[in-house]
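Researcher: Last one for today. Full complex below.
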Amino acid sequence: MENEKANAVKTRQLKVALVGKPNCGKSTLFNVLTGLHQRTGNFPGVTVDKKTGTAHLRGMNGSTTDVTYIDLPGTYSLYPKSPDEKVAFDILTNPDNPDHPDAVILVADATNLKRCLFITTQVIDLGIPCVLALNMMDELEKSGQRIDTLTLALRLGIPVAEISAREKTGIGKLENFIAGGLAAPSVHVLQPATLLGENAALLRAHFPEKKEYALLLAGHDVVSKNNPPELAAALAAKNFNTQRLQSEESLLRHAWIGQLLLECSGAKAAASRTTQRIDRVLTHPVFGYLIFVSLLLVMFQAVFTLAQYPMDWIEQGFVMLGEWLRTVLPQSGWSDLLVDGVLAGVSGVAVFIPQIAFLFAFIALLEDTGYMARVSFIMDKLMRRFGLNGRSVIPLIGGMACAVPAIMSARTIPNWKERLITIMITPLMSCSARLPVYTLLISLVVPDTPVLGFITWQGIAFMGLYLLGFVMALLVAIILKYFVKVRERSFFIMELPIYRLPQWRTVLITISDKIKVFLFDAGKIIIGISIVLWILAAHAPGNAFEVIEKKYATELAAGNPEAEARVASEKLEASYAGRLGKFIEPAIAPLGYDWKIGISLITSFAAREVFVGTMATIYGAGNESEIQPIRERMRNETDAVTGKKVYTRATGFSLLIFYAFALQCMSTIAVVKRETRGWKWPIIQFVYMSGIAYFASLLVYQLMK
Amino acid sequence: MKPEYTTLDKLLPGESAIIDSLTDDLTSLRLLDMGCIPGEPVFFEKRAPLGDPIAIMVSGSLLSLRLAEAATIRVKQTAA
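Model: Here's the assembly. Have a good evening.
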């Protein structure tokens, strides 16, 4: 007991939450405070990204503090309107929540203090120890404005640290406040008793331990959840009207904030001239749309061409590694499994890291600079025709990277119908997992000849597939618009943040995060399936393999290479994997696929990027003698019966179309189930996407063959 | 001089006014959250290329909202 106490004095454990409105630099500050010691998880029960990080602080008196920082979702107020805001609300107001913080850093944008102080005064009234981090002080000084931080601290009753998260100034002072121990605020901004009237006594009887403002919030919670029903009914009888009370509270707080700002800052915030000038171009009736489309075109071409160099290095590296392993390892089934199963699977994954990094970098840049909000602004009216919202653009573009986070980002759409339609069509946007499949197939069937300057036919085919996904998404949206019947108001009230230069650090952290997820999450599935597949391809029921070997015994003994190839391919056909492919061949033959492609289709339903790894494993199992890049193996693949090339233009395009439309991703199905709270919508989504994929590929193959 | 009352959607780009009141309960909570507070000056920045939504400057930030939402904001224009 004594020991524990002594330790507690030496190193304190502290949970500190970062709270603030969107675009106030909260995430930048979080990155500065935690560096690379951070991890992304989920808040229990919901799919809101939970970012936590740790830091070790040394106080001025020699004491040390281990701080766990939690980056809460950005929120304008403590009236939760979206699932993200609800997470922040629950954590801050419920002391029993495992993430309930010991202290809060309130992050405010000094150049727009008025908007940031609302949530600040609410948290102060909750009585949680806190400190105000006045961010972007450098920008404030540049614009020639001033804030009297002493008055601000006195009136708010909490310490104030002037910082710039981007310039990393004032961070030490902020950490000193935290390490020194924060006290509960000494001020109450709002007197809830006057708002609550007679209801105060009712609530007090039910929540004896809650402080005044928490009591008012508890009242809202009781009424909105109708739990406990008898208290909700009693409150309703005494005219407890959530909307009216929230309006009144807002007005009182804003009046208080207005007075405070008069005291501590003279000048009024002016619009950023730079932002106005940039907006004149980017939201221009003609140039606005032109720039948007050109940006996308440049993005795709860059992903395709720039990423090619590092991809070639990785591919060659794996080929060399495989050859080297073949020479040093003894000839056995285990080395075959290692080289043809595991290594082929790993290289199939690793080779796409450059493309995924480029794509996520582009999308992070568009978000970080504030451009994405402008795209929503110029697209809202168009999107409304399709039953969507201007904000649907963000999930749809995000869907080009990965449908899973994109579907989660659809939460910013307040209207359920618009949100549901956005969720239903987002997986039609070509995601980065389709990149490997597209890249491989396009390089097989589309010539690499230039069309216009640096743009090639391959680049156009690539862009075409993305456009195709987008057009199909809009068509489906129109149809869904008539089937989804929800009467709910649609809103488009959104802040257009001022333009800022991108934060390279933030972009880099995003990229490394996404690559880690891709390598470990998708990689696990891919390698697992590669191994299972290799085993299925290397074994056959009964003595099928021996029968084949006996059949060609004399030719094999003579060392006839043609016979060796025949044996290998007949073995694959007789294997478990081959039987599986043969079983579905009748269904896919009209699309131009043979049973080998059939095996890939089956494995791809776990995750579409498995296609390439599967191809590598299948062709590796068939051709043990030579190691060459998978693309070459597929190019040389011929039909055993007719002797014709398997990957003709018709088959290639048919496959491309299939992968463009089919929902082959377990994670997407799981996230749609969570976001729509049930199996109904993910099942509908799976069925409609598979249907479109099958019939569109059928059409393409029959027309082109 | 008598102030003229109108709604925000009726203003022209470049005009400014003072927010008088919010007329729709449901929309008002969102608008208050985003800084559209009675008594606050508001500046009509511009329309989106297709005429709707619009961008306004209020409480120090640029806000985008649809015409239907702007119609719930009553403003007073002091005839200069």
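The interface with chain A takes residues 25-35, 37-39, 43, 45-46, 48-53, 55, 57, 59-66, 69 of chain B (CB under 8 Å). The longest strand of chain B covers residues 16-22.
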